[in-house]
Design goal:
By secondary structure, the protein is of the alpha/beta class. The protein is built from twelve helices and eight strands. It has helices spanning about 15-30, 50-55, 80-85, 95-100, 105-120, 130-135, 140-150, 155-160, 180-200, 200-205, 220-225, 240-250, and strands spanning about 5-10, 35-40, 60-65, 90-95, 125-130, 165, 210, 230-235. The chain has an eight-stranded parallel beta barrel, surrounded by five helices. Strand 1, helix 1 and strand 2 form a beta-alpha-beta unit. Helix 1 runs parallel beside helix 2 (about 50-55).
Length: about 250
Amino acid sequence: MARRTFIAGNWKLNLGPASSARLAEELVRTLADRGEVDVALYPTTISIPAVQAVLGGSGIELGVQEVEAFASGAYTGANSPVLCREAGCTRALIGHSERRQRYGETDAGVAAKTVACLDAGLLPMICVGETLQERDAGVAADIVGHQVRAALSALPADRVGALTIAYEPVWAIGTGRTASPAEAQEMHQHVRAVLRSLYGDVIADGLRVLYGGSVTPETAPALLGQPDIDGALVGGASLKAASFAAIVRASH
């Protein structure tokens, strides 16, 4: 089954409204001829309205970097999936390793946020990945498999097709170190095998699994050429229009 390539830019805690809008404008121009590639941008929450105003009609999607599992209430500082959808977002990151490590995100929280996003009309991108210690201990596949199963634990088969999974080895995020194409392919194949065991061939073969972790224009071609890697979740290289566009073009 053919899966459309998906390249996503996670801007993390960078770029305010004005600079986000400028980058989005440049990307709209640069990626007008991107072909059959889906593209989404995940700016800071405060910059979402400015980016949304630029992206309208471009086909580039807008996402939020973090949400909570409730629509409203006494939750100071939280992002509601419902309100993010109202602000123009169509996608959300869930369970990024930085949220797991620095903010205490749990597997149960990832599962609850995934359901809340789907209920609100946001498409979740569920992030999974092992630490260097876990890889060196030989348990990387077990860790990633557990994270996938936990995130999807509350979802019936008819809701899973709307998801994207991003495999991000924690040891490769922001370090300049990238998993080799063979290492990345092996884990993506494992993620697809877990999906197959849970939901069968149709979902496993149709759901997109992206690679993230210091993806650059130089590393992208070999990574995106692997059979089970359907795109990239790009961090630092997404903050410059030229480098992000080069990664999008590498997927053609």
